Amino acid sequence: MWSKVGQYIKKNNLLENNSLYVVALSGGADSVALLLLLKEHGYNIHAAHCNFHLRGEESDRDEQFCIELCEKAGVALHRVHFDTKTYAELHKVSIEMAARALRYRWFEQLRQDIGAAGICVAHHRDDSVETVLLNLVRGTGLRGLTGIQPRNGYVLRPFLCVSRTEIEQYLAERGQNYVTDSTNLEADVMRNKVRLQVLPLLRELNPAVDDNIQRTAENLSSAQAASDAMLSRYLGNNQLDISDFKDSASREYTVFEWMKNYGFNGSQVRQILAAETGRMVSSSQGFDVLKDRGRLLAEPSLKAMKAVKIPEEGTYVLPENALPWAESAKIKVCRCAPYVSKSADVATLDARRVEFPLTVRRVEEGDWMQPYGMAGRKLLSDMMTDCKMTLFDKRRQLVVADARGFVVWMVGLRTSQQAAVTADTTQVLELRLVTDK
Q1: Which of 82, 48, 230, 39 is nearest to 154 (CA)?
Q2: Is residue 329 within 8 Å of residue 435, measured between CB atoms?
Q3: Could you tell me which residues come within 8 angstroms of residue 345 by beta carbon, excluding any fewer than 6 positions away?
Q4: Using one digit for the tens of pLDDT, what is the confidence trace for 261-290?
Q5: Which pTM value belongs to this model?
Q6: Rounded CA gap, 133 and 198, in Å?
């Protein structure tokens, strides 16, 4: 047992002899074996037990077992109690997701509090095999077929090289008992169905199926690492030039890996690749991806902006989300001697031809203006298209309208001929956009 686990720890650089580690201890066979094996081989460990109060007296039984085990082994034990059902209801998640979130959040806080180098959990080879099969059934990409990884941040898994049977044999040889979670014996959860029904059938076809699946997952992990290295130059950018992959066999995969970072799934990837330019899709994580002229653009979903009223001269702070690329933005309004601004961030208007109050808002459907230097009026949507603005640019474009509803300034782009400075202008109304980038 230790020969396998010790080599696996060394191969994956999981543990150091002079560091402190937290062992997640449920009282089940896997975590009990992990605790005893690490303690036996000289690692400095503390145990951590969560009582989720989901199984009545059985939950309390597990906690008491862990207390007695740690006292006998001479291992410090940290305990916590959770009202898991209430947490699940408040956050509208399943009991399983609630327990996982509570568990790992507390483990990390405990790790920081006691200065531990990592959190050791007892996932073993069978867990990894089940994960591969579950992902395959649900539908997945390459990464989903790599199984459980030995390290995920501070979470360490030294037992991925051994099976549940090997763990039970190790405990039997020591005469060490453990507790059994009765819900693990019920085939009412998908993972339990795979464990209790699917895998036994596969083992009838091939007794070595567990080893074969795990070996395949490890091979795919190597392929995933090579793929990650190739894709690293794309994944840090919010823009992906898909024309680079037009004839590439890896086009859809590359786009999937890029969009996955923003919370998109495989069907959305296929949807955006098949779409015409100008198509946008949104993810559940609050991001939008836009297909625009052979490239994909990503940015946070734009929230509605409350219009800002400007009743008189002064400085007016715009909402935080007015300009997504700026930390803060203001509009300064003042009167001054006649001049014509040449700066995109400053509009100069004939003060007599603008009526207060002014309104700063985003472009709305049907907005139009008579651009400076033109005889006729034009829809703002057409003006933005002429400027080759993306849908992202268009939807965040700001305008200033006066009391009559006339758009007097497309902020950063054009002013209105109706309010233009002329030779007869005696006083200018200056609108200045000030941003902190």
Answers
A1: 48
A2: yes
A3: 412, 432, 433, 434, 435
A4: 899 988 898 899 888 888 999 998 899 999
A5: 0.66
A6: 9
